[in-house]
Amino acid sequence: MSRLQVVSGKGGTGKTTVAAALALALATEGKRTLLVEVEGRQGIAQLFETEALPYEERKIAVAPGGGEVYALAIDAERALLDYLQMFYKLGSAGRALKKLGAIDFATTIAPGVRDVLLTGKACEAVRRRDKSRENSRENSRGTSRDKSQDPSQDKKGGGYVYDYVVMDAPPTGRITRFLNVNDEVAGLAKIGPIHNQAQAVMRVLKSPETAVHLVTLLEEMPVQETADGIAELRDADLPVGNVLVNMVRPHVLDEDAVRAAAGDHRKDIAKALAAAGISGSTRLVGPLLDQAAEHAERVELEREQREALAKLQVPTYELPFLGEGADIAGIYQLAKELRKLGVGV
Q1: Contacts (Cβ under 8 Å, ≥6 apart) of 183
Q2: 163: which of 155, 255, 283, 328 is 20 to 30 A away, CA to CA?
Q3: Which residue stretches, if any, does this entry annotate as coiled coil (predicted)?
């Protein structure tokens, strides 16, 4: 079971919405999930209709069954200050560097530093333990379980603060480089805390603890980008999770009707209506036939894209189109669908 679930996708596919829904789906049955944003867009806050997220883990939703969803908008500058304090105990010296502009320089100019900090912070949340939480679970159940069989336990026996961490990651076009940046850093820094931290992050990202899901639409460009992304992830030995096809519209015509709509039957229908005594048939039926033809064309294009996705040999799941848009109710609806499909669990 993957405790770090990374969600990527081409722009416009709804990856942030799917990431939010996945966090809710994973938080059911009393679980606790952290939803992480790394692009600085405050998309999570907009979806949950809350104020802009600060650099702190804040509860934003309650899932069915009493589970909790926390959110964190990772700020690269603050993450670097955390890093300096954690490994070098700089404290006030680190804050002085920020005032001098050195922190901003490091996170915006130095190649790869920003991505190292963002992935490192997410992986820290995955590894973070909370023994008091696990002890309270044990006491409430009144039993001593075999902790080796419990996914919320690590080898030292401490319960994790979060059962799952869901990352709303960068788009598919740069997801592999984003996740693999610590591998490059570990190769550049041969020894020392930077090398050790980079290796620790990659041990999480390249392990069964992580799954990288790609969100797409049944359209040619997103599907092709998904195929390219999967190939890049596999080449980098990063774990591919599922393909999540978002915004799938229902088929309103059966196969026979689709085939009929694909042809031009205007004259035949006009004659039949005229024979029945209906005047102005062309003006009445024409727009409906246009819509039917467009639907038939879309169904055929979607069939082609499903075939292309099937060739990727990755578990693929389809999520419905939300007619009312991606509001809070829609997120809960998608979470219910993801839970029913068994995605991520």
Answers
A1: 198, 202, 236
A2: 328
A3: none
